[in-house]
Specification:
The two termini are about 40 Å apart. This protein folds into 2 domains: about 55 residues, no CATH class; about 110 residues, Winged helix-like DNA-binding domain superfamily/Winged helix DNA-binding domain (Arc Repressor Mutant, subunit A). It is elongated and about 65 Å long. Helix 3 packs antiparallel against helix 7, helix 4 packs across helix 7 and helix 5 crosses helix 6. It has about 170 residues and is mainly alpha-helical. The protein has a 3-stranded antiparallel β-sheet with strand order 1-3-2.
Length: about 170
């Protein structure tokens, strides 16, 4: 068995060692990275959901509200831009806007440039909710990063950017 897996390694080390033992014909090196990325993503998802739950928000609600917030004053975007930024279909976005509007977090306005167009805008309640949730989220994520020295965080961000870039093209 791999010495790392028996002397203080993590669960991924144990999984990799088992695969190396059972299938020595396979190069399991990708598992050493992507199994950790996957496990981290699950932990982050739980932590993010916790932050959003404290503000009675679903993850998808935060996604829409934060896209509007990032747009800057007057915190208004077209549904098409929201679709592009949140990677959902237009039908899904319509449903999401309807639900957020019923909760008083967004409102629809006619586009001043196109009589048929609609713009979605944060309400005061939506702005307060997304700002509070964002502050909480950043506290949660900063605690996760406490495991790394501040000097290496930009390197990690750059490496992850390189890997993710192939999907964002």
């Amino acid at each position: 068995m791999d010495e790392t897996a028996t002397n203080g390694g993590d669960e991924v080390d144990r999984i990799v060692a088992a695969w190396r033992r059972e299938r020595p014909d396979l190069d399991v090196e990708p598992l050493t990275v992507f199994s950790r990325v996957s496990r981290l993503a699950r932990h982050l998802d739980r932590a993010r959901r916790g932050a959003f739950d404290r503000y009675a928000l679903e993850t998808w609600e935060f996604d829409v509200l934060s896209a509007l917030r990032r747009a800057g004053e007057p915190y208004r975007l077209s549904p098409g831009v929201l679709v592009a930024q949140t990677l959902v279909t237009s039908g899904t976005m319509t449903n999401r806007i309807d639900r957020l509007e019923k909760r008083g977090l967004v409102e629809r306005h006619r586009s001043p440039d196109d009589r048929r167009g609609v713009l979605v805008q944060l309400t005061g309640a939506g702005l307060e909710r997304v700002d509070a949730a964002m502050s909480d989220l950043l506290d949660v994520e900063a605690r996760v990063l406490d495991a790394l020295p501040p000097a290496v965080r930009p390197q990690l961000a750059a490496l992850l950017r390189t890997v993710v870039a192939q999907f964002d093209e």
